Amino acid sequence: MRSKLAVALALAVCATGAQADGNSNNNSFNDIFTNGHVDGELRLYDFNRLYDTPATPDAHALSLAALINAQTGAFWGGFSVGGSFVTANMLGTKDDNPAKVDTSLMGPNSSLGAWSQAYLQFKRDWFLFRGGYQYLNTPWMGGNDSRVIPSSYNAALAEFTPVKDWNIFAIRTFSWKSRTSNGMYDDNLYYPSKYNGDSMYGNNGALPLTAPEANGTWAAGTNYTSGGFKGEAWYYNFLRFARMGYINGSYTFTTGTPFNPFIAVQALEENSSSSDNIFVQTHTKLVGVAGDRVKAESWGADIGTSIYDGRIDFAYNKLESESGAVGNGALISPYTVNYGTDPLFTTSMIRGLVEIGPGHAWKGRAQYNFFDKKLQLVAAYAKYDSVERGTSHDLYFDIIYNMDSVLKGLQLRDRWERSVGGTGNLNPGNESFTYNRVMISYKF
Question: Which residues form the signal peptide (predicted)?
């Protein structure tokens, strides 16, 4: 039976508190409160999915959410306790027709509340350990924070910093909470909505309801920064799904002028035997193709330059076709698929090669800051040529206005993307699809 970290950690915290209360020297215990910290964020998001096909109704969702984070001060030489509570409400705007609700924003219900973090942490000098419900920040397993509530994980994390700017990580996750779930579940984004009672809506899970539960993930990684160089390497074992090796590196050439060119490269490889793979055992099709094993290879490059207060770059990714493999070589990403939050250079707001399958993509992107970085404008265009989903094009605009001069922490944002083309119902009815996300946030 797998460990339930939250319960074990809660008991550890209670025991620690009891011991500290009986200690005559209670200065460290008092620091729990005097050096504690509380912050949070209010979010008002309005999402609209506009479909060109008459067979699929447009979908809308509006949500007001609050994210409250708290962490105690350090006690007993480096221990602390933290937690985050999240809640969201549609404010009476939910449509009576479920097909007209964008369930990816906060699920199908009018309200949602959950503990997204509840952890015990120890931090001292070059070492950190955190166990319990927590947010993670790794390339292929992170917060997916483009909705009102981020994803979180029931996990144990160890971080080492041997020297400045060099970090080493070891992670074991047991379960997770999706962006629309009300608790931790033994599944991932390949599972269907309602799996084991999970309210994991807004994704297109391919597995059947009878699929075995997910067993979590082992992960290890490192990152390093020195001058203009940034690099990272990760290994993931998505248990019973895929084993992934991933590297990413970039270098920026500082010229002393308004133009600072950069180049970045990335590569990954995935595999999994057929004997204990859930996709193979359930004959599950990804992008319309089942397989007898998992195998995927991808690489990419990004080149560009800063231009005064802006930046322009051009990126390319290739995902190889692998005959006989699940999805003809589909890239298995249990915690980003259908979210469009993976680290591939060419991923767009709506989707990327993880969702489309084997093929190649290129993307051009430009951004510029105005009014002392208060206003940022972004435009991008991406083209995807895939083996199973044809050719599609995504056009993207993003307007970000930071209103610190009015109220510190206030931001207005409008993201707009239109996807055209594709086959195999990539977009509903193989017609164009427009997604508009208006996002107001206030950090305090």
Answer: 1-20
Q: Are residues 257 and 375 in the same domain?
A: yes
The most distant pair of C-alpha atoms in the chain lies apart, rounded to whole Å, by: 73
Residue 165 and residue 255 share a domain? no
DSSP code per residue over 136-187: --BTTBS---SSSS--EEEEEEEEEEEETTEEEEEEEEEEEE-TT-SS-BS-
- Which residue is listed with tokens 């009815």? 429
- Which tokens in the block code for residue 301? 């490059």
Of the candidates 323, 43, 86, 298, the residue with the CA atom closest to the CA atom of residue 181: 86
- CA distance between the termini of the chain: 41
Query: Domain span at residue 290?
Result: 240-444
Query: Percent of the chain having pLDDT more than 70?
Result: 93
Closest CA to 332 of 237, 414, 438, 247: 237
How much is the pTM?
0.93
**Of 153, 171, 201, which residue constitutes the final position of a domain?**
201
Taking the C-alpha atoms of residue 59 and residue 43, their distance in angstroms, rounded to an integer, is 20
